[in-house]
Amino acid sequence: MSATSIEWTDETWNPVTGCSKQSEGCAHCYAEAMSHRLKLMGIPKYTNGFSITLHPNTLSEPLSWKKPRNIFVCSMSDLFHEKVPFEFIDRVLDSIRKTPQHRYQLLTKRPERMVEYFSTRLVPDNVWVGTTVESNLYKFRIDILKSIRAKVHFLSCEPLLGPLDELDLSGIEWVIVGGESGPNARKMLSKWVKSIKEQTSKFNVPFFFKQWGTWGPDGIRRSKKKNGKLFEGAVVQEMPKIMSK
User: What is the pTM of this model?
Assistant: First the structure.
């Protein structure tokens, strides 16, 4: 477990590290850059850099965490990557089932494999399933995700690289939006964010605006800290309503 600056979660847990590019949102992957940096620093967990690596020694970590929290699983990987065996995912889910006080956020760019996995297994009540939808090209992932029987389905529209038109958000419990950061960051336009926010309001879905990233709402390049996280003058960081149940 490690503390995180990711605002929509409390902690991260990485029983798998490493990944490979799946779609255009992966082009400037923060996890890839960080993995190579940690390897150069001599951090043992990242000896293999960004190659898929299983860490069975981390599977028992959540069992010692007593305080309830939101936990982003595999922030440095994709748990449903083709090179992660279902048998290992079983072991990850076993730890999740043993710690019902926590809420585990499983985010993937491979919802087809997530569906395959859960086609023969139940989703624990404390698991939220999510997929990345960075532009209209990947809206197909939404219907795939919704086919999974889970209490919370969420979308991560980060980095948002284009408009998301005519979204069917029925069966979606949460939408996260954020712009890209880094030296090669691509712009996110205000009208794209506004459109998504309006659509979440139509479906009564909580909307979480994470950040502008490297490009501000005025189209000027700055540090992501300076651009901040205000949308139309306010911080809008709503969480799934199931949190209050």
Answer: 0.96
Alpha-carbon distance 153 to 159, whole Å?
A: 19
CA max distance for the chain = 49
Query: pLDDT means per 10 residues in the chain (245 residues)?
Result: 80 98 96 96 97 98 94 98 98 98 98 98 98 98 98 98 97 98 96 98 98 97 96 97 56
Q: How far apart are CA 143 and CA 103, in angstroms?
A: 23
Contacts of 140 (CB under 8 A, 6+ apart): none
The helix (run of H) or strand (run of E) holding residue 54 is strand 53-54
The residue type of 37 is R
Copy the structure tokens of residue 31. 């996890």
Distance between CA 144 and CA 157 in Å, rounded? 16
Helix (H) or strand (E) holding 37: helix 30-40
> Are 87 and 1 spatial neighbours (Cβ–Cβ below 8 Å)?
no
Residue 134, phi-psi category: left (phi > 0), alpha (psi -120 to 50), beta (remainder):
alpha
Give me the long-range contacts of 37-41 (CB less than 8 A, separation at least 24): none
Tokens of 168: 């069917």
